[in-house]
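TICKET: design request
STATUS: open
ATTACHED STRUCTURE:
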């Protein structure tokens, strides 16, 4: 079968994975002849930088007894700062301004994850006035400390939000660095570049391998693109049965394009 081929669109916002990291996946040297061999493992109970085990708020969240964490925050305990900041940023009742104060504290202590988080807050105006210029400074600092999501965020900035035209020359190295650390959005976005021939020579096999790596890390949009590629034989051998497996995964996460393609394949 053959469906209409449209340029793939890059995922715009880098999503926090709340205390997990993906490590150990190398982009350079991917065997594009057999991309199914590309494995992407997930390590849990670690911070985004992959360097330390974090505490779990557990009952503290449920009882709203944040004082226990606050006592640890006063001692500059990074794990407690991170946990309390995420409670304020993501859980009810939210207090994003307090979360940003904690991001600032963590950034001042040199923590990569909290430095990236402060950059994110500035980039999207969450709990603080939006300032992309300031956000980029924190992203760059976090990236220099090895924070993969900050690297991806810089790639997104240079392609989508920089004042001049998209700068793939600057973006792609950030994506490659982040992908080498196993960051799902970097796999996906780098795959988009190879699929569209944006900043690199078009290579459908590499694009498929990168989408597959992201899909195995539960990246919804990448799961759709793997299904689409399998359905169309783009960068891989056509396999409708496998295509439906990946499309169902994406559809179960609410991906409308995957739901539509599944319907088309069933008709």
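STATUS: resolved
RESOLUTION: sequence designed for all positions
ATTACHED SEQUENCE:
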């Amino acid at each position: 079968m053959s469906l209409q081929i449209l340029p793939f669109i890059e995922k715009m916002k880098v999503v926090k994975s709340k205390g997990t990291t993906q490590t150990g996946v190398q982009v350079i040297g991917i065997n594009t002849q057999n991309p199914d061999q590309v494995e992407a493992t997930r390590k849990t109970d670690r911070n985004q930088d992959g360097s330390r085990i974090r505490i779990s708020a557990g009952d503290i969240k449920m009882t709203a007894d944040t004082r226990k964490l606050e006592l640890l925050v006063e001692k500059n305990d990074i794990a407690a700062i991170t946990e309390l900041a995420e409670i304020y940023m993501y859980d009810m009742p939210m207090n994003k301004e307090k979360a940003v104060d904690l991001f600032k504290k963590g950034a001042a202590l040199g923590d990569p994850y909290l430095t990236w988080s402060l950059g994110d807050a500035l980039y999207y105006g969450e709990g603080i006035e939006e300032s992309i210029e300031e956000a980029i400074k924190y992203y760059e600092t976090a990236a220099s400390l090895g924070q993969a999501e900050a690297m991806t965020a810089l790639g997104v900035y240079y392609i989508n939000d920089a004042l001049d035209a998209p700068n793939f020359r600057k973006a792609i190295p950030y994506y490659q660095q982040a992908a080498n650390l196993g960051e799902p959005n970097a796999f996906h976005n780098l795959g988009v570049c190879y699929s569209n021939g944006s900043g690199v020579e078009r290579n459908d096999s590499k694009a498929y391998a990168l989408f597959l790596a992201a899909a195995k890390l539960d990246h919804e949009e990448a799961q759709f693109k793997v299904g689409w590629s399998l359905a169309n034989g783009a960068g891989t051998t056509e396999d409708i049965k496998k295509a439906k497996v990946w499309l169902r995964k994406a559809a179960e996460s609410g991906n409308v394009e995957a739901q539509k393609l599944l319907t088309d394949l069933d008709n």
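CLOSING REMARK: Strands lie at 21-22, 42-43. The CA atoms of residues 27 and 217 lie 15 Å apart.
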